[in-house]
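Hello forum,

I keep getting stuck at the same step: I have a sequence, I want structure tokens, and every attempt I make locally crashes halfway through. Rather than fight my setup again tonight, could one of you with a working pipeline run this one for me? It's a single chain of 522 residues.
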Amino acid sequence: MWYRIGIDYSATLDQYRVNINNGAWSPYYAAVGLTSEINQLRLYADSNANSYLDFISPSYSASAPVISSVSSSNIAPNSATITWTTDEPSTSQVEYGPTTSYGTLTTLDSNLVYSHNVNLTGLNTDTLYHYRVKSKDAANNEAISADYTFHTAVAPLSLRLPFGDGESWHVSQGNNSSPTHNGNEAYAWDFNKDGTSCNEDKGEPVFAPASGKITSAGWYSNAWGNIIIINYGNGYYGRIAHVLNDQAFPIKVKVGQYVFAGELIGYNGDTGTSAGGCAHIHYQTENASGVSLDPIANNIKFIDPGVPSNGVPVEGGQYISLNTTPAIIYHFDTLLDSSGNNNHASFQPNCLVQGCIALNGTVDEYLQAPNSASLQTAGDISIIFWLKPENVGSGRINPIDKAYFGEFSLVIEIDGSLSYYHGQSTSNYFSWTALTSGSIANNQGVRVVITRDNTAKLIKSYVNGMLVVTTYYGIDPSATTNPLRIGLGNTGIPYKGKQDEIAIYPRVLTDDEINNDYYATQ
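Reply #2:
Ran it on my machine without issues. Output:
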């Protein structure tokens, strides 16, 4: 009586084993003798070898695949595509990172192909990446390419409409429109408040469409009147024209200072040659030469709800702004008065932008803002700050603190990581490592942003404009009566070093807005 024989091959071990009928598998035996000339297994059904079944053995290969035509394409702010070819069917995998140490390996695509295509996602904007590709053939021979690089694109410039949060204004003159939007002003908008006639919206507040540095603030010419120009970084500038500048309605910013998106910068006016003699907000994004930029060609978008998907408001359209003013802003460009706790922060030049505060690391030197409704941010929040510490390692330090059992608290740990807290009570709170060990170091400046989406229950952390960590939470924040403190908090260990350009928004900033904010400070 003869038995059916089964064959099992392990590509990993390059060995075989046999199974007779339904018995146990034999041990593995090395596939000795398989060569390019001897590459077929035959299983005979009887001892006289009168009949047999053919089984194809694994492809024999004495060398690794040859990799060629390695290239990167479809490079966007947060993604790229890597392609290459091999001279024999093989697997696909890419190793990549900011240096030749790489650090990130894509999931192995085990399909054996000649043409390889791997998409990289979750990349940081405007960043140089090194990468190399890897392929293995059926015999487990691996080939690794040389090092290649690509540079991700700059994030789109995300703008908010330049009028008050929740207000409805309409476009009275759009892009490439008569009588004045032509030539260098072709890609501009004039905004007027809905329900007003000529000059009834004169004196209405005007807010920065995006974060940046002020390069012009005041009288410009008989045509433009008073203007404010904001340098957004990456070669983009925002021009707001015809604003007022008198004792009742002064320009609120000065050349050289930094402004946050949503910050009050001036008041709607009719200075210069205002179209029709009526006050309006004239806005255009331009280059360094003052030439307005095509928003579509240059990836510039207003991202308020209701604006068309291409980000371009149209003439006659009515739009509601979501240009939320931060709950608190500290520029530290001038010496601040003492808080109620008599902190003695000193003015320091040459910081992130103009001046900053330098705290000396003693318990009587910190800044404090009394509790207010605007600081009871128990919902969505974005916390932005720059710091350059000098006493990391001395203990658990609160650079900014409201309440770890309430709205939020931040702690620089001894190992240079950053912890985040919020909660319902001293026994029911959420904690999270927002930045890993070594992220914050002595005498190293860093721009940090924390966002909290209280609907999605999602928190994100960013360093120098780049998304670093995300996590979900199950315990909601709550409102407290605690004051907001900078440089001291619940841990009792004072912060020593510099801080600058701090803002807290009661909304979630987008990835692009955060990236724009960072490059505007460069």
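The longest helix spans residues 511-520. If your local run keeps crashing, start a new thread with the error log.
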